[in-house]
Amino acid sequence: APEQSLADFDRLLARHPDSARALYGRAYVLSEMPGGTEAAIAAARLAVAADPRSVSYRCALAVLLARASSTDEASQLIEAAVEENSSGPVQYQAACVFALASRNDLQFVARALEFLENALARDYGHELLATDFDLDALRHDPRFSQLVAGLRNL
């Protein structure tokens, strides 16, 4: 129940307004609600401000910004995150950011596929490929199909 989750986060934030985890949780719940993207971005910005060292919070903000077509800011955030941490989850979120950006500019398709391949090579994202709507812009690309087919052959 998203409304109950938001109420729980709001109660926690009333006592601890700088709780980065609560702000991140609030951003996550809002991002799953119809029309919640802008409020999710605001909450994610507060989470990043509360804990600017958290790569996870910065990646989440980048994905949310990309969903809202704020490509420049999203790509800057995610590129900095990847430079700091090249783990599978960060590579995967970078793939999502650039896949979302490719909806408006096809130049980002190759970058998204590169990050996706890196994430998969780090054993992250296999179970997400079929259902992650952030990757939808890549599904028509033959290189995406090749990545998926390559996983089936493992």
Descriptive labels:
154 residues, mainly alpha, 8 helices
Question: What does this 3D model show about the protein?
Answer:
68% of the residues lie in helices and 0% in strands. It has 154 residues and is an all-alpha fold. Helix 1 (2-15) packs antiparallel against helix 2 (20-31). The mean pLDDT is 95.
Largest sheet: none
Q: How many distinct helices?
A: 8
User: What is the gyration radius calculated from CA atoms?
Assistant: 16 Å
Look at the structure and give the mean pLDDT: 95
Structural class: mainly alpha
Give, in order, the helices and strands: HHHHHHHH
Task: State the separation between the terminal residues, measured CA to CA.
Answer: 38 Å
Helix content: 55-70%
Give the overall form.
elongated
Number of strand elements? 0
Write the layout of secondary structure elements.
Blueprint: H1 2-15, H2 20-31, H3 37-50, H4 55-67, H5 71-84, H6 88-101, H7 109-121, H8 142-152
Short description:
The chain has 154 residues and is mainly α.
